[in-house]
Amino acid sequence: MQSYQVEKAVIAHWATVRRTDEQLARIRADIIEHIDAMLPKRDAARTEAVRKLTLVTDQSQKLLEAHYADAISIEDLKREQDRLAIERAAAERVLAQSTMGRDSLITILDRCLLILRDAQEQYRQATDAGRRELNEAFFERLYVHDDDIIASDYQPEFAKLNDPDLAHALRPERKHPLDDLMRTSVLSTAQRSVKSVTEVTETPESDTNRPKDLPTHARRNDRSTGRPAIWAIERPRGRLPWEKERTTAPQDRGSNNLTLVAGTGFEPATSGL
Predict the structure, then answer these.
(1) Are 273 and 263 in contact (CB under 8 A)?
(2) pTM score of the predicted model
(3) Could you tell me where the DSSP H helices lie in 154-199?
(4) What's the rounded Cα separation, in Å, for the pair 137 and 158?
(5) Which residues in 11-34 are b (16+ Cβ under 10 Å) and which e?
(6) What angle is formed at CA 247 by the lines to CA 243 and CA 251, rounded to 5 degrees?
(7) What is the dihedral of CA 198, 202, 208, 209, to 10 degrees?
(8) Minimal CA–CA distance to 162: which of 209, 65, 231, 90?
(9) Which pLDDT score is estimated for 86?
(10) Among 8, 256, 4, 3, which Cα is nearest to 148's?
(11) What is d(CA 82, CA 30) in angstroms, rounded to the nearest whole number?
(12) Is 212 in contact with 251 (CB distance < 8 Å)?
């Protein structure tokens, strides 16, 4: 396929991203419920991080004073400084991850849903750099077959947003330790993705090229990834051939067919066969 044919197919595929107003309303309600459930925990963690940071600063000062008074050795000083540095970094990480308020999070959510409401038209109107940013933000992979794009893999955050049972998918996050949740929750992943989606006309193109191999069969069927739940969206024409035929996880790129030709091959049979 030539580049203009690929781009035409990508534009057509973006029509599959569009969601109905009813679907968007459900997604919005589920995410806001999740935000309201998580913000009290996040705010409590932020308060604790501020307290910890103050304590670490005070301990650092006292530690230096003790060293200057020859009360502790240089070895003990370095060991305690290393410990305090780790505690300071942990507290600062929590503070950095908890700066956005409820209104800001909902604004990000609404921007994300706006893209889903009319995705194809917004993609069509974007600049070349903007289209690249949109593709990278939404899709992990696009599958081309017979001069057409027949399927895609969504990025994890958008796969989660499009989960038919989003409320159930979000529920386990509320049971995780807060530090883990703040790294994996829709509250943070949506923030990172929507930033690139909503600033597509201002973001310079990157020369970074990160080729990825096809996902393994085990990964594709791992329920922890949530993939099977949204295959109806990612696979509008049904599952891909290699997902149907392969019974073991692929180790390398190549054909899914285990038998390609008869034992004699294309050439006439010889005495060695």
Answers:
(1) yes
(2) 0.58
(3) 156-161, 166-170, 178-184, 186-198
(4) 9
(5) eebbebbbbeeebbeebeebbeeb
(6) 85
(7) 60
(8) 231
(9) 93
(10) 8
(11) 42
(12) no
Rg (CA), the chain: 25
Distance CA(160)–CA(229), nearest Å, equals 9
**pLDDT value of residue 115:** 83
What is the reported pLDDT for 213? Answer: 46
Q: What angle do CA 192, 196, 199 make, to 5 degrees?
A: 135
- Give the bridge partners for 153, in sequence order: 141
Centroid of chain to Cα 106? 19
Per DSSP, 214 falls in state P
- Per-residue pLDDT, averaged over 97-103, amounts to 81
Helix pair angle (102-117, 186-198), 10° resolution = 60
3-state secondary structure at position 53: helix
Beta-strand runs (E) in the chain: 139-144, 149-154
The pair of three-digit structure tokens given for residue 267, joined into one six-digit string:
């050439």
The two three-digit tokens of residue 179, written as one number: 């530090």
Pairwise CA distance, residues 19 & 114, whole Å:
10
Query: Considering only CA atoms, which of 26, 25, 83, 30 is closest in space to residue 52?
Result: 83
Tokens of 23: 């679907």
The 10 Å Cβ neighbour count of residue 131 is 19
* Residues paired with residue 144 on neighbouring β-strands, in sequence order: 149
Could you give the CA distance from residue 158 to residue 16 in angstroms, rounded to a whole number?
Answer: 13
| Contact present, 228 and 221 (Cβ < 8 Å) | yes
Q: Binning pLDDT at 50, 70 and 90, where does residue 210 land?
A: very low
